[in-house]
Design a protein that fits this description.
heterodimer; A: 122 residues; alpha+beta; 3 helices; globular; B: 145 residues; mainly alpha; rod-shaped
């Protein structure tokens, strides 16, 4: 009996999941720029986790040297979008934030489709 | 921007990218859910829910309707002609009028002695006619003993 498969997980599902993570990292490169300039010492990611879920992650060092994190999970539902910040309770988005999210997602998908189409054509 | 393939070498170029594009297409199809209402209203024909009278939810229906249940399962009270009644609503107590259309059987009147005698005579005459086959008649009489 071998324990190797535990350390070399390469069935189709696991390989596909690893590939999707790789693609998400790729998308996050342009996703983080959709919201404008990133402040100094900030890390930002914005990406599509699945067809309903969008993640905006931001971490930074504050003026006192403390590490800060703000991770926002947006979930799209037929009656609108809801969000949870740092694992807190979900709340419904206001109109303004919902409109911003709409524009950001539209921009993100447009860039991603262009990039992937070029890659597939190459 | 870094090349996609700098993130690793595990990609199945067409399969994985196509799968990811499918996810993004699905995500794009859900954008309608959060589309700004102002621009949507000017660009789109109203959907069926605004063309037609809204279906009132059962809870709303119960709170706005009068307390009496519909007089039959298919009848809608005139005061709430636009509301929808579920065919069977267990939360609404049964009204006696719900069963108004049921036909109730009329109890039979008690038979008189004369009727009983006539009935017995008819039965006896019928039995006599059945004794046309002598063997059957004998067998019947033998059976009586």
């Amino acid at each position: 009996m071998s324990i190797l498969p535990r350390f070399l997980p390469r069935n189709d599902a696991q390989r596909a999941a690893a590939a999707e993570r790789q693609l998400i990292h790729f998308e996050s490169q342009f996703g983080r720029d959709i919201f404008g300039a990133i402040p100094k010492d900030h890390n930002r990611d914005f990406f599509c986790l699945d067809e309903f879920t969008w993640i905006w992650h931001e971490d930074w060092i504050d003026e006192k040297g403390n590490f800060k994190v703000m991770s926002t999970r947006y979930v799209l539902r037929p009656d609108g979008a809801i969000k949870s910040q740092n694992g807190g309770a979900y709340q419904k988005l206001g109109d303004e934030e919902s409109n911003h999210l709409f524009k950001a997602i539209k921009k993100y998908i447009s860039i991603a489709q262009d990039q992937y189409t070029q890659l597939l054509a190459a | 921007m870094s090349s996609l393939f700098e993130f690793g070498d595990k990609l199945n170029r067409e399969g994985d990218i196509s799968a990811r594009l499918a996810v993004l297409s699905s995500a794009a199809s859900h954008l309608d859910w959060i589309a700004p209402k102002t621009s949507v209203n000017t660009m789109r024909i109203p959907d069926a829910s605004t063309f037609f009278k809204p279906v009132v939810s059962l809870d709303t229906n119960l709170s706005t309707a009068d307390n009496s249940a519909p007089s039959s399962v298919n009848q809608v009270p005139q005061s709430n002609a636009n509301t929808y009644y579920a065919p069977i609503n267990p939360d609404v107590p049964e009204s006696p009028t719900t069963y108004a259309s049921y036909e109730v059987a009329t109890p039979a009147e008690p038979e008189t002695l004369e009727d009983l005698v006539k009935k017995r005579l008819r039965q006896e005459i019928a039995n006599l006619h059945n004794e046309t086959d002598p063997n059957v008649a004998i067998d019947q009489r033998m059976g009586d003993y």
